[in-house]
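Last lecture ended with a question: if I hand you only a sequence, what can you say about the shape of the protein? Today we answer it with a concrete record. The protein is ATP-binding cassette domain-containing protein. Below, first the input exactly as provided, then the predicted structure, then a couple of comments.
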Amino acid sequence: METVLAINNLGKNFGRIQAVNNISLQVKAGQVFGMLGPNGSGKTTTLGMLMGVVNPTAGSFSWFGQPPTDHMRRRIGAVLEHPIFYPYLSGRKNLELNAMIKQCPVANIDNVLALVELTERQHDAYKTYSLGMKQRLAIASALLNDPDVLILDEPTNGLDPMGIAGIRELIIRIAAGGKTIILASHLLDEVQRVCTHFAILKKGTLIHHGPVHDVGKGTETVEVKANAP
Ligand code: ATP
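The predicted structure:
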C-alpha cells in the first residue's frame, strides 16, 4: 500500500504550551485513520500542520512521499471547521460558488450532492438544513476537486443521533470509493465504527497507534494514564 502521509518527529509549541510533542506515524492509502484523544490533546493542531495552516516547531511530514507543497495539498480535502455558506442561497448554489473559488468543474457538483445524499434538497436554502445536512454539505464542498485524501476534524460534534449516523455512514461510503480519510475524534465508539487504523494522542504525545482491532487496548492505556497520580 502506498504511504499517503508520513509524519516524522512532528512538534508544535505555542509559547510554553507543548501542543504536539514528537509525533511519528504513517497513513497508508485506503485507510480510515482516526486520531483519538480528549479535548486539548493536540488533534486540531496536528491537522492544522498537515494542512499547512500551522507551522511546526519541530519535525517534518510528507504527503505522497513529497514535501508539503501547494501542489500536493490539492490532493487533500479538509473540513477543519464549518466553511462559510450563505444561509439564503441553496445548498447547490453554495457548492457552485465554492467550485468557482476552487476552480473545480461544475460537473462534480452532481456527483458530490449524490454522494452526500443531498440531491433532493439541493435547491432548498442552506438555512433550512439540519446540522447533519450542513456538515454533509461541508464534506461535499471538500470533495469538489475529487481529492485523494479527506481530513475531518470532529465531524459529528454537536449533531443529533440521526445526524451522527448519517455522517458515519457517509465516511464509510467515501472510504469505500477509494479515498484515504484522516479523522480527529474524541469518541472511542466513532473510531471503532468507522476507522481501520487509529492513533491515541494524550497531551500532545502519541501513546498508541495501530489497527482498530487494538482499540480497546489503547484506550485502557489512556484510562490508566489519565488516572495515574
Ligand atoms: P479540541 O478537541 O478541544 O479541539 P484538540 O485535541 O484538537 O482539542 P488542540 O486544539 O490541538 O487540541 O490543542 C492542543 C493544546 O494547544 C491545547 O492546550 C490548546 O489550548 C493549545 N493551543 C491550540 N492552539 C493554540 C493557539 N493558537 N495558541 C495557544 N495555544 C493553543
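Comments.
1. Residues 161-176 form the longest helix (16 residues).
2. Confidence is low (pLDDT under 50) at residues 220-229.
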